[in-house]
Amino acid sequence: MTEPRTAIVTGAARGIGAAVAQRLAADGHRVAVVDLDEQACSGTVDAITAAGGSALAVGADVSSESDVTAAVDRVVADLGAPTIVVNNAGVLRDNLLFKMSVDDWDTVMGVHLRGSFLVTKAAQKHMVEASWGRVVNLSSTSALGNRGQANYSAAKAGLQGFTKTLAIELGKFGVTANAIAPGFIQTDMTAATAERVGVPFDDFIKYSAEQIPVQRVGQPEDIAHTASFLVSEGAGFVSGQVIYVAGGPKD
Ligand code: NAP
């Protein structure tokens, strides 16, 4: 049986984060739906409450220390101390290295790495107090290297190191930390990539599916299912792992 916990899912207004938030709520957890724009969170929150779950919309930029502190304080007050964190908020600023601006580099590092650090740091004391916690960080198959993504691949590889270190430091407090490294998942993010390379999204999906061993692209629910497992009571001996969810060994 699932013991209800308070979960924070960042970047949960849409895409993978929205699916993870809905799945964790369906599993019985109270979910803070965090995204840049609080209004944009209402779709996810409404879907959760319509299904009988409990959710709170919280507007915050995860790369801002003051936003994150205020967001976590609000979650504690309105939903209870968070003991599950899914660091999912993400942005792309793809370009070949010679054309990549310092701003493109800093923005990607700020959201993925600094954001995951800030949210995890703010939440970990509640996990330690509860002697129980689960951290799930969204990495990517791009961590292995991907043309046009020097910033993103470095951030996603960095998240794997961050995850393993969290697992080492927090394990004795009953806290596990794991990373999910998705391959191609059908969301606005991959739609934007198709647009950037000038290929209709349907063709992009079809071509990508042909390269993937299971012959389909991923859906946000594929990642939500993995996150549900990693935050479950029974996954307490799984820590410091990177689980590639990519329809094969890589995308
Ligand atoms: P998405 O559809 O673009 O959704 C990302 C969400 O994060 C958006 O709602 C976005 O808000 C929010 N966000 C961006 N910057 C933020 C910030 N500073 N603070 C709070 N929220 C912020 O992306 P997705 O495809 O669902 O991806 C989710 C995660 O999975 C990302 O970490 C991504 O890198 C990773 N991933 C995705 C794929 C894939 O194929 N889709 C593959 C591997 C890994 P706005 O809408 O306001 O920008």
Automatic annotation (TrEMBL):
Q: Which SUPFAM superfamilies match?
A: NAD(P)-binding Rossmann-fold domains
Residue ranges of the Ketoreductase domain?
5-183
Superkingdom: Bacteria
- Write out the coiled-coil annotation as residue ranges: none
Q: Which family does it belong to?
A: Belongs to the short-chain dehydrogenases/reductases (SDR) family.
Query: Which PANTHER family does the UniProt entry name for this protein?
Result: 3-OXOACYL-(ACYL-CARRIER-PROTEIN) REDUCTASE (PTHR42879), 3-OXOACYL-[ACYL-CARRIER-PROTEIN] REDUCTASE FABG (PTHR42879:SF2)
Name of the protein in its database record: 3-oxoacyl-ACP reductase FabG
| Organism whose genome encodes this protein | Aeromicrobium halocynthiae
